[in-house]
């Protein structure tokens, strides 16, 4: 059994984020072949190309965390019909300076939750566009736009609705299949 290391990003910086709850659920429901670990970006300063010649340690550590995983999972809310600024800033740090893009060839998937009926559909489309430019192979299907309702997911990640739990378990199984397929044709060190 091959284990793939997956780094996940939680788009919201809020401690009580419903997307953090969703991330906890995805970690619980992931197949054992996916070793999940959060990659935090909350301490990154705002990106500027002025840093390109000498990245601050926090940014180097952040890029090293991405380099250490086989795939990435984005769990994000939708802010003003797009991705949160903090998440975009993190992607900018990871993809710069030119020629050192941490996402090149790194399999990725996008999911999110919101109280709204369309989940995070628009934010996910924006994020997919950014990841496409970053040359990250993306799991395009199945898509997952989760409408969050009070009590759907406990703080520890327990999903209280069996149908939702099965759906999320399937998403993670599909992500495992996708990561294995990409890694078999595009090795990590390629």
What's this entry about, in short?
This protein is an alpha/beta fold and 190 residues long.
Count, helices? 5
> What's the N-to-C terminus distance?
22 Å
Task: Specify Rg, calculated over alpha carbons.
Answer: 16 Å
Question: How helical, in percent, are the residues?
Answer: 25-40%
Strand content: 5-15%
Tell me the overall shape. globular
**N to C succession of SSEs:** EHEHEHEHEH
Number of beta-strand segments: 5
Please give a structural write-up:
By secondary structure, this protein is an alpha/beta fold. It has a 5-stranded parallel β-sheet with strand order 2-1-3-4-5. Strand 3, helix 3 (85-95) and strand 4 (108-114) form a beta-alpha-beta unit. Helices cover 37% and strands 14% of the residues. The longest helix has 24 residues, at 162-185. The model has no long low-confidence stretch (mean pLDDT 95). The relative contact order is 0.20. The protein contains 5 helices and 5 strands; from the N terminus they run βαβαβαβαβα.
Itemize the secondary structure elements and their pairings.
Layout: E1 4-10, H1 18-29, E2 34-38, H2 57-67, E3 71-75, H3 85-95, E4 108-114, H4 121-133, E5 145-147, H5 162-185
Parallel strand pairs: 1-2, 1-3, 3-4, 4-5
